[in-house]
């Protein structure tokens, strides 16, 4: 049996590392190929960074390749060895051409000069996370790489809408290359971690601008969670551009479109609300796919992670696109920003019965920065009068672990004068609890997808200004964030960069934080885990 080592997500085996097979379903072979892909991408990034230093321009396709490679290796995105192998080959070819342009290969690392056309497996030991022996250096390198993976995901969505920022791509590649550099000590890597947080803010701002300029500002919206009696397509993941193309191509075909998990916030955008056949949100967070995809009865389009290895019973109804892949599932091609052809999935939908009803009713969302700032007066008044005493940021991810029931219980136990600010799929733990409102302000304000955590930071900075505070930490805001995969890592680093302190992170702290690195985060930023709901209520509210 092959060995592997991966500890990049919250569900890693035993809170230590997956060594035989991933809890996510990733095989040891796929994990090894992903390591090699990252290794090759670091090498490519070293070469592009050298070329930039010489004043050479790096082609857009090269930036896209780096971004896509990182995205492919995010938890639950791609389980397709053939695709990963092709990406390694493409990366090595691209690197070879750039090395020729560079001419002088002196001083480059093995990852930068390595070239092969087959047997990529041979590089697995060298590409492994465990190849870095020093525990703290390994921890910091991986913290940075995981942050960069999250950054790449958001960069990809912005790129798909025609928005890019050269300094973001340049940083992404420079930072990746630096994780190969043995001369960088822990102090230098901590500084690089903080810089990664800065670019995390930038990339989320870039994506926010891309989304709102293409689709308008999210607005308060009631989203139907029931079904209609037509065949449907269920869309999951985060890629709004894919959704837009699908909505256009399904118009007038008699096929309805529903969102799943992180695609729910698409309903908040004016540009999507005009589609009569964009019916509502079906089901809950990513990890409930097996039951909910079964019940949907029609085809499912996965535009990004999180993909749960599908059951045979509905596997033929799964279509992947973008960075997502699963051996045996149909893939819809189309690179960054290209028009994709969804005719196969639409034809498939027409052969299927309508979705089985899971629930009925509505949920409310659309509280991104523009909408919340439009309500600023009302919110400030409620804070000043004491009607709202605390905001609790409960953004992040949902997941399988039963420990995550903590977030449902925590939301229920909150005092009635506390308002939850959320983004990401974490919301499914409490967005159907009917927690009521405070003077017309709902007690769960959903800003959108995990990348819309940026909105929560904009709101916090605005409140700081309105209340004339010196420090963002003086606001009556508690941060109790749930994490799962690497996009949550970039969100966390972005918040740290913005100066947010005392973030509680759960349901468990990342396995990739060595005791010393965890200590740095605790001492400098007050990062903490979670306790029981009773303990945390007492800590936050003194009750
Ligand atoms: Fe969730 Fe998955 Fe958005 Fe993540 S669906 S877990 S942080 O991919 O990206 O919140
Ligand atoms: Fe394990 Fe998570 Fe890595 Fe999958 S992504 S192999 S579950 S640590």
Q: How would you describe this protein?
A:
By secondary structure, the chain is an alpha/beta fold. 45% of the residues lie in helices and 11% in strands. Strands 5-4-3-6-7-9 form a six-stranded parallel β-sheet. Strands 15-12-11-16-17 form a five-stranded parallel β-sheet, with helices on one face. Strands 1-8 form a two-stranded parallel ribbon. A hairpin with a 2-residue loop joins strand 13 (437-438) and strand 14 (441-442). Helix 6 packs across helix 18. The chain is globular. The N and C termini lie far apart (52 Å). Bound molecules: iron/sulfur/oxygen hybrid cluster (FSO) and iron/sulfur cluster. The site of iron/sulfur cluster has 13 residues, from loops.
Write out key terms for the chains shown.
543 residues; alpha/beta; 20 helices; globular; binds iron/sulfur/oxygen hybrid cluster
Strand order within the widest sheet? 5-4-3-6-7-9
Given the helix and strand composition, which structural class is it? alpha/beta
Question: Which radius of gyration do the C-alpha atoms yield?
Answer: 23 Å
Secondary structure tally, helices: 20
Which parts are unreliable, with pLDDT below 50 for 5 consecutive residues or more?
A: none
* Strands, total number: 17
- How is the biggest beta sheet arranged? 6 strands, parallel
The shape, in one word, is globular
Report helical residue fraction. 40-55%
- Mean pLDDT over the residues: 97
- Report, as a whole number of angstroms, the end-to-end distance: 52 Å
The portion of residues forming beta strands comes to 5-15%
Associated small molecules? iron/sulfur/oxygen hybrid cluster, iron/sulfur cluster
């Amino acid at each position: 049996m092959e060995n592997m080592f991966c500890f990049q997500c919250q569900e890693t085996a035993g809170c230590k590392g997956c060594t035989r097979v991933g809890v996510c379903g990733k095989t040891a072979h796929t994990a090894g190929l992903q390591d090699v892909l990252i290794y090759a991408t670091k090498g490519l990034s070293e070469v592009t960074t050298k070329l930039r230093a010489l004043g050479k321009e790096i082609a857009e396709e090269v930036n896209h390749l780096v971004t896509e490679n990182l995205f492919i290796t995010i938890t639950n995105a791609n389980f397709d060895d053939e695709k990963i192998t092709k990406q390694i080959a493409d990366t090595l070819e691209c690197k070879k051409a750039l090395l020729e342009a560079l001419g002088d290969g002196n001083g480059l690392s093995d990852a930068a000069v390595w070239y092969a056309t087959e047997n990529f497996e041979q590089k697995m030991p060298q590409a492994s996370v465990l190849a870095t022996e020093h525990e703290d250096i390994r921890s910091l390198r991986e913290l940075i790489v995981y942050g960069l993976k999250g950054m790449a995901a958001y960069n990809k969505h912005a790129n798909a809408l025609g928005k890019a920022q050269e300094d973001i791509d340049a940083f992404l590649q420079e930072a990746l290359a630096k994780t190969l550099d043995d001369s960088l000590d822990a102090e230098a890597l901590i500084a690089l971690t903080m810089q990664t947080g800065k670019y995390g803010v930038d990339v989320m701002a870039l994506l926010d601008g891309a989304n709102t300029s293409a689709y308008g500002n999210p607005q308060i919206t009631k989203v139907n969670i029931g079904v209609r009696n037509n065949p449907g397509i269920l869309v999951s993941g985060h890629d709004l551009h894919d959704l837009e193309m699908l909505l256009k191509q399904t118009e007038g075909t008699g096929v309805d479109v529903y969102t799943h998990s992180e695609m729910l916030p698409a309903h908040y955008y004016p540009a999507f609300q005009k589609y009569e056949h964009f019916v509502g949100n079906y089901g809950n967070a990513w990890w409930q796919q097996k039951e909910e995809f079964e019940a949907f009865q029609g085809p499912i389009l996965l535009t990004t992670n999180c993909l749960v290895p599908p059951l045979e019973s509905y596997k033929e109804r799964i279509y992947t696109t973008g960075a997502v892949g699963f051996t045996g599932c149909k893939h819809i091609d189309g690179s960054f920003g290209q028009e994709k052809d969804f005719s196969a999935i639409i034809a498939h939908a027409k052969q299927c019965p309508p979705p089985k009803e899971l629930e009925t009713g509505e949920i409310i969302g659309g509280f991104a920065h523009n909408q919340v700032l439009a309500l600023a007066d009302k919110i400030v008044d409620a804070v000043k009068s004491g009607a709202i005493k605390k905001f609790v940021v409960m953004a992040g991810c949902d997941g399988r672990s039963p420990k995550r029931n903590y977030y449902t219980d925590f939301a229920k136990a909150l005092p009635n004068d506390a308002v939850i600010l959320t983004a990401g799929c974490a919301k499914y733990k409490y967005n159907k609890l009917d927690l009521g409102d405070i003077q017309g302000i709902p007690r769960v304000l959903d800003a959108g997808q995990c990348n819309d955590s940026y909105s929560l930071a904009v709101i916090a900075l605005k409140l700081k200004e309105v209340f004339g505070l010196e420090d963002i930490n003086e606001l009556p805001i508690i941060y109790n964030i749930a994490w799962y995969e690497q996009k949550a890592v970039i969100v966390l680093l972005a918040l740290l960069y913005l100066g947010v302190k005392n973030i509680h992170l759960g349901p468990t702290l990342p396995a990739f934080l060595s005791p010393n690195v965890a200590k740095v985060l605790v001492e400098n930023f007050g990062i903490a885990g979670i306790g029981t709901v009773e303990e945390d209520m007492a800590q936050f509210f003194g009750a």
